[in-house]
């Protein structure tokens, strides 16, 4: 008969639900939490719950924000004539690290993947098209990853945008095929941004 502590097993199970966390790492994290004093453990738990309750989607670009409009959309110094379209908020953080892009963003919330049941209606494509109706936007940069899903998404959206008379470009391939923006270094991202091509 193996030795079990129900509360510990449940804590390990919760950590195992996180992406990239296997059983041994989950166990290590659970023991780390048990080693914290109660005040720190409570602060850790409260911070997670507070983040979940207060962080929402920006009404303009769908980025994560603690207010209705994110800091990037609210910044009057940003170039509103260019929108960089990305898969998720992590990609915005990657671009912002380059300190070379001063336009705005639009987060799709995923990529087209019929095999996984993700069609256009599951993504924030309608919201992107609504932003283009003002006539202020001159260029949309498709910065989806160079994967099958990323390419399909970029092509689908570019076909919707082109009739509106807005220039659509694609990131140049400084980013390896199959790679994700989140793990690309600043120089690679900057070169990809600089060498973007029209679709």
From TrEMBL:
Sorted UniProt keywords: DNA damage, DNA recombination, DNA repair, Metal-binding, Zinc, Zinc-finger
Molecular function terms, GO-annotated: DNA binding; zinc ion binding
Toprim domain: residues covered: 81-176
Pfam families: RecR_C, RecR_HhH, RecR_ZnF, Toprim_4
GO biological process: DNA recombination; DNA repair
Keyword Lipid metabolism: no
ZnF segments: C4-type: 58-73
InterPro entries in the cross-refs: DNA_Rcmb_RecR, Rcmb_RecR, Rcmb_RecR_Znf, TOPRIM_dom, TOPRIM_RecR
CDD domains documented for this protein: TOPRIM_recR (cd01025)
Family: Belongs to the RecR family.
Role description: May play a role in DNA repair. It seems to be involved in an RecBC-independent recombinational process of DNA repair. It may act with RecF and RecO.
Protein name: Recombination protein RecR
